Amino acid sequence: MSAFTRLRLEGGNHDYSRGFELDRAYLNAELGPVALEAGRDVQKLGPGARTSLMLGENAAPLDHVRISASHPLELGTEAVRLSLRYFVARLRDPQRFHGTLLTGARAQLDLFEGLQLGGTRLLELGGDGAPSFTFGQFVLEHLFRQGSSQGAGISNNRLSFDAAYTAKSLRGTRVYLELAFEDTRSQFLNTLEFDTDYLAGIEAPDLDGTKRLGLLVEVQRTGRSSQEHSTFTTGMTNLGRTLGSPLGPDTLSAFAQGRFDTDAASFAPWVEVARLSSDVYTATESGPVVRIRKGPAEKRLRGGIQASAPLRERVLLRVEGFAERVFTAGFDPATAAFNAGVMASLVWLGPGPVLQ
């Protein structure tokens, strides 16, 4: 058994700077193959090194309980291993329905020490004024849709499948792909075109054999209603931040980040190009999605650098800076904008094991 707490004191001029915050506080326990956790913590599901389509570090830490395998379980041989996780969380406001629940389930197969295949399911349901359900419906909703077959049902459903391959012969270079479905339709190709999020990446942690040079490249495209819902109108968010990609719906992004380490510090410069669409779509419950109007696109060219340096054994300084140029800002072709920011973090690790 163990306990972990992290306090955060923030200052700045943006909405997320709330001053003092209990950032994380949780208890966990392991007994044989089973691991339990309860409290406030960050979860990251999926293969993405930077972006998570389902649940990642962009989301505020979840208040949740979870059960999982404490380690991958061998299925008859070391070449085939299975990891399982299930959790129930209470989403923090703002939410359309105060007290909305989020459940998550993930299964992952590790094959031949290089290939990983995974699937993740998120359900958002309940809260003050939300569609009601019994405990039996709560359980069955994980398998079959409950409630009206013609309406939105009792939950907001999000599903993903992913694959990753690590090439040991290429110094641990990893390639990965993830598809996340906001909705599924009988017209499957139409679903793939309009209602599916895509993430593809390549991560090379050791370019020169010294482990001091690395490279990460990610490309993502989000569907026209990514993380949105007709009933749960605040979408899949926690404390006002999306659970998955922060780009929002109907976007396209390409990102590249290098990394070089010195004896005294680590530096990670990055650049990203993003396109945010204002196209308009129509659809019926049983019919296909159709784009009925193309609108102006907001384009963002941004770059920055992250740097970290140990000041002493348990004190770490992290500095991040960025700047971006926005074209067609707010989807107005006559408007442009420039944004920049800097964030510095001084981290002290208390007594006990040094955690990263």
Walk me through this protein's architecture.
The protein has helices at 135-141, 188-194; strands at 2-9, 20-31, 34-41, 62-69, 73-77, 80-90, 101-111, 115-125, 155-167, 173-181, 196-204, 213-221, 237-238, 241-242, 251-261, 266-276, 280-282, 290-293, 298-312, 315-327, 336-348. The chain is globular. It has one domain: Beta Barrel (Porin). Strand 20 (315-327) and strand 21 (336-348) form a beta hairpin. The protein is mainly beta. It has two helices and 21 strands. The strands form three sheets. It has a 17-stranded antiparallel β-sheet that branches. Strands 13-14 form a two-stranded antiparallel sheet. A two-stranded antiparallel ribbon has the order 17-18.
